[in-house]
């Protein structure tokens, strides 16, 4: 027989496992997903309306309007951070040198990140949030997505159609607007232009062979024009480029649906800080520098595949409580009246009311599934699938 203390310990462990099992099952339930997405959508629309009310302030005090919109935008985007950190429980490990670590969050930077995963934007936001900054460069289509797209519009995010002839003027104007931005920002660039797939990689490497460029194993050929223009226009405003490479342990391919189901992942991010003044100003030299950078990124990916880790020391930036507190605030504010409304509708006994409520829930779930679909790799854009597009470098 086991000693009494061992029995108590074993019993406690079993109770803990049972509780965790119940919690994990609860996280996979549609009702929980509906509540989470309801809170996100309704709070987002409320915030979008408040952002709309800041428009008259822009000609009077532009910097104050920007600061207000930064806080309002944080209230939306941090909900996705809370979903990843607290609901999913995903762990985030940072590989970087200690001297660079001291500067993160205290300077403006251009972040060059690989584009392989459906939730790389959430992971990037999580690291940004831990250092008190948020930033992104988004494709034009996302500007029309409710809540997030509208929020980005008020944050003066640079939207691009990914047709350089049309994008250049818009991108330059948007970059110039960032020169007097009142908050620290990280300008995120996916220089590959689109998410990595085997089909796109094959086409990209055919282009590399035609152009006499070294082939890459884990990345697409970087598109240099956007990077060069960004560097040219942000000199004097941005002090460094953060070369960032993201991976998930155990070769996992995380999805937003998996996060919503409470599945836990472990993200590893390798970051090198490169002073901006070391990057050539000449466009052709800058392009050559970027190609060399991606060759090095490929080597880092190979090192990770072979060893299960990136080179250099490990740091785990602490979670900040603000994302969770913001999320709980909106849950408390919005869920109670929803429950009371649904209860009244059900008690009314009206078949029409019940049917309308049921149809509304289905419509919400379809809308949510559509928004999730925007992040899925197999439903991603066809950008990069055509040889002529890949040649537009």
UniProtKB/TrEMBL annotation:
Uppermost EC category: transferase
Pathway: Phospholipid metabolism; CDP-diacylglycerol biosynthesis; CDP-diacylglycerol from sn-glycerol 3-phosphate: step 2/3; Lipid metabolism
Record-level Gene Ontology MF annotations: acyltransferase activity
Subcellular location field: Endoplasmic reticulum membrane
Location of the Phospholipid/glycerol acyltransferase domain: 109-228
Catalytic activity: a 1-acyl-sn-glycero-3-phosphate + an acyl-CoA = a 1,2-diacyl-sn-glycero-3-phosphate + CoA; (4Z,7Z,10Z,13Z,16Z,19Z)-docosahexaenoyl-CoA + 1-hexadecanoyl-sn-glycero-3-phosphate = 1-hexadecanoyl-2-(4Z,7Z,10Z,13Z,16Z,19Z-docosahexaenoyl)-sn-glycero-3-phosphate + CoA; (4Z,7Z,10Z,13Z,16Z,19Z)-docosahexaenoyl-CoA + 1-(9Z-octadecenoyl)-sn-glycero-3-phosphate = 1-(9Z-octadecenoyl)-2-(4Z,7Z,10Z,13Z,16Z,19Z-docosahexaenoyl)-sn-glycero-3-phosphate + CoA; 1-octadecanoyl-sn-glycero-3-phosphate + (9Z,12Z)-octadecadienoyl-CoA = 1-octadecanoyl-2-(9Z,12Z-octadecadienoyl)-sn-glycero-3-phosphate + CoA
Known EC number: 2.3.1.51
Transmembrane intervals: 30-50, 142-160, 324-346, 352-372
Coiled-coil zones: none
The protein's role, per its UniProt record: Converts 1-acyl-sn-glycerol-3-phosphate (lysophosphatidic acid or LPA) into 1,2-diacyl-sn-glycerol-3-phosphate (phosphatidic acid or PA) by incorporating an acyl moiety at the sn-2 position of the glycerol backbone. Exhibits high acyl-CoA specificity for polyunsaturated fatty acyl-CoA, especially docosahexaenoyl-CoA (22:6-CoA, DHA-CoA).
Record's protein name: 1-acyl-sn-glycerol-3-phosphate acyltransferase delta
């Amino acid at each position: 027989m086991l000693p009494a203390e061992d029995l108590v310990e074993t019993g406690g462990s079993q109770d803990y496992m049972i509780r965790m099992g119940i919690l994990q099952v609860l996280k996979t339930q549609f009702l929980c997903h509906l509540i989470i997405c309801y809170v996100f959508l309704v709070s987002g629309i409320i915030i979008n309306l408040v952002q709309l009310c800041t428009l008259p302030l822009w000609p009077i005090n532009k910097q104050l309007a920007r600061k207000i919109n930064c806080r309002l935008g944080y209230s939306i985007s941090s909900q996705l951070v809370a979903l990843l950190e607290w609901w999913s429980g995903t762990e985030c490990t940072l590989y970087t040198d200690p001297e660079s670590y001291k500067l993160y969050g205290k300077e403006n930077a251009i972040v060059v990140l690989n584009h392989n995963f459906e939730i790389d934007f959430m992971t990037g936001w999580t690291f940004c949030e831990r250092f008190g900054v948020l930033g992104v460069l988004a494709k034009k289509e996302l500007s029309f997505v409710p809540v997030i797209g509208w929020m980005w519009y008020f944050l003066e995010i640079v939207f691009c159609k990914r047709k350089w002839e049309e994008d250049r003027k818009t991108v330059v104007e948007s970059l110039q607007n960032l020169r007097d931005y009142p908050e620290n920002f990280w300008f995120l660039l996916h220089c590959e232009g689109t998410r990595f797939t085997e089909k796109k990689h094959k086409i990209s490497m055919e282009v590399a062979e035609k152009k006499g460029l070294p082939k890459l194993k884990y990345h697409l050929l970087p598109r240099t024009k956007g990077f060069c223009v960004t560097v040219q226009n942000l000199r004097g405003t941005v002090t460094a480029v953060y070369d960032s490479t993201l991976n998930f342990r155990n070769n996992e391919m995380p999805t937003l649906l998996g996060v919503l189901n409470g599945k836990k992942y472990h993200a590893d991010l390798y970051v090198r800080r490169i002073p901006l003044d070391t990057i050539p100003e000449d466009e052709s030299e800058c392009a050559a520098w970027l190609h060399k950078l991606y060759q090095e990124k490929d080597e880092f990916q190979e090192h990770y595949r072979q060893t299960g880790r990136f080179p250099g020391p490990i740091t785990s930036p602490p979670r900040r409580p603000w994302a969770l507190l913001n999320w709980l605030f909106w849950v408390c504010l919005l869920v109670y009246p929803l429950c009371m409304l649904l209860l009244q509708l059900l008690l009314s006994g009206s078949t029409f009311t019940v049917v309308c409520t049921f149809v509304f829930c289905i419509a919400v779930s379809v809308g949510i599934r559509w928004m999730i679909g925007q992040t899925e790799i197999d439903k991603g854009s066809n950008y990069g699938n055509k040889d002529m597009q890949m040649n537009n470098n």
